[in-house]
Write a structure and sequence with these properties.
The protein is built from eight helices and 19 strands. The chain is of the alpha+beta class. The strands form five sheets. A five-stranded mixed sheet has the order 12-19-18-14-16. The protein has a four-stranded antiparallel sheet with strand order 1-3-8-6, with no helix packed on it. Strands 2-10-9-5 form a four-stranded mixed sheet, with no helix packed on it. The N and C termini lie far apart (112 Å).
Length: 359
C-alpha cells in the first residue's frame, strides 16, 4: 500500500515503532511481531529487511498469507514507525556465529512491589557444530528491578549451553521492562532479549505447572504424524486468575499448538486446575523449538520451553509374501517338476558312467 506524504513525515517515531513491534494494537491476544520474529537483534525470519520502509513490510504482509490479518491492526503510518525502529537495530555479525538466547523474552507476570519473584532461567547456546563462542558477560539494563546472573564460561564450546538466572523486584505499581544484553569480552553487544513484569500493590496468586517443569520435550516424531503432551495449570491462591494469553510462540511457533481447558476458558478459578494440551506436528525432518507465552494478572508460571525432532517416516519393509508360482505349489513349497528334472539328470549321469565302464 502506498504511503502518503503526510504519513511519511509523521512516521519517524522509532520508540512508537518498538511499542508496536512488541504489542500489536487491538483486542487482547492479537499477538506481536516478537511472537514470530523474536527480538529484532536476533533477526528471525529476516525481520530486519523491514528496515527499508513501511512499503516493504506492507508488501510482505500482502504476500504471506499467515500475516494477512495484520492489515486490520496496522496502518501505513504504523508500518513506517516499525520500519524506523528496525533501522536502529544492527546485528554485529552473522547470527550463526552469535550466542542464541532461548527464549528471547520472559514475562514474570505480577509481583508485589518491593518483593523478589522466584528465580527463572534462560539459556544461551552455541549452535555452531565446530566453532567456540566468546562471551564476556550478560547484563541487565535495569539491574535493580531485573537482576541477572550468568554461569557462562569465557569460551562456550560447540553446541554448548549455559544458564542465565533472572529475578524480578518491582519498584512501583505498573508494568516494568528491561533488556538483558549478551556482551563480548570487549564489551560489544552480541544479542539481547527482554524481561517483563508488573508491579502489584498486593501479592497476587502464583500460577504453577503440574507436573513442575520448564521443558516440554516431544523427542522424535515422524513427519506426517502428531504428538500431544498434557500438563495442568494450577492456581493455588484464593483469587481467580485471568489468562490474557496462552499460546506457542517463537520462530517455529506454527509447529506447536496450545489448546485445552485453560486456553478456552481464559480464566482459572481460585484453587482450581485446568488442562493444557500441547501438540506438535513436524513438517520436515528437522529440529523444532519454541516456548509457551503465558500472560495473566497473576505471577506467571515458569516459562515452558518446547523442543522436538522431526524424523522421516519409516518405510515399511518389502513384503515377504510368496510368488504366485509358489502359492500354486502350496504356500511356498517347492514345485515337484524341478525335483523330477533333477532326478532324471542324476539318473542319466549314472547311466553314462555305466556305459563307459570297461568290461
Amino acid at each position: 500500500m502506498f504511503l502518503g506524504w503526510a504519513d511519511a513525515v509523521r512516521a519517524q517515531d522509532a520508540t512508537r515503532g518498538a511499542q508496536l513491534y512488541r504489542a500489536l494494537p487491538g483486542s487482547p491476544g492479537v499477538g506481536s511481531c516478537v511472537s514470530c520474529h523474536g527480538e529484532p537483534l536476533n533477526n528471525r525470519n529476516s525481520v530486519l529487511r523491514g528496515a527499508v520502509g513501511g512499503a516493504w513490510i506492507s508488501r510482505t504482509i500482502a504476500a504471506v498469507s499467515a500475516m494477512g490479518y495484520l492489515r486490520q491492526f496496522l496502518s501505513d503510518a504504523d508500518l513506517a514507525d516499525i520500519a524506523t525502529y528496525l533501522a536502529t537495530v544492527v546485528p554485529s555479525a552473522e547470527l550463526e556465529t552469535l550466542p542464541e538466547p532461548w527464549p528471547t523474552f520472559d514475562d514474570f507476570g505480577a509481583q508485589a512491589v518491593g518483593t523478589l519473584a522466584a528465580e527463572r532461567t534462560l539459556w544461551l547456546r552455541n549452535l555452531q557444530p565446530r566453532g567456540e563462542l566468546s562471551i564476556g558477560s550478560v547484563v541487565s539494563t535495569d539491574p535493580v528491578v531485573f537482576p541477572v546472573q550468568h554461569e557462562c564460561p569465557l569460551s562456550l564450546p560447540p553446541l554448548g549451553s549455559c544458564r542465565v538466572r533472572t529475578w524480578f523486584r518491582p519498584a512501583a505499581v505498573g508494568p516494568a521492562e528491561a533488556r538483558f544484553d549478551i556482551l563480548a569480552p570487549g564489551g560489544q553487544l552480541l544479542r539481547s532479549g527482554r524481561l517483563l513484569g508488573t508491579g502489584a500493590a498486593l501479592q497476587p496468586p502464583t500460577l504453577a505447572w503440574a507436573p513442575a517443569t520448564e521443558l516440554v520435550d516431544f523427542g522424535r516424531v515422524e513427519v506426517g504424524r502428531s504428538a500431544e503432551l498434557r500438563l495442568q495449570l494450577h492456581n493455588p491462591g484464593g483469587t481467580a486468575v485471568a489468562l490474557e494469553r496462552l499460546r506457542s510462540t517463537g520462530p517455529q511457533a506454527l509447529r506447536f499448538v496450545v489448546s485445552g481447558e485453560c486456553a478456552a476458558a481464559g480464566r482459572i478459578e481460585a484453587g482450581a486446575r485446568c488442562e493444557v494440551t500441547i501438540a506438535h506436528s513436524p513438517r520436515a525432518a528437522e529440529r523444532a523449538e519454541g516456548w509457551v507465552e503465558l500472560a495473566s494478572d497473576a505471577a506467571n508460571a515458569p516459562l515452558l520451553r518446547l523442543q522436538a525432532i522431526g524424523v522421516a517416516a519409516q518405510v515399511p519393509p518389502q513384503s515377504s509374501a510368496s510368488s504366485p508360482e509358489q502359492d500354486a505349489a502350496g504356500g511356498g513349497a517347492l514345485s515337484p517338476w524341478p525335483l523330477l528334472g533333477l532326478g532324471l539328470s542324476v539318473l542319466a549321469l549314472r547311466l553314462g558312467r555305466v556305459r563307459r565302464k570297461p568290461h
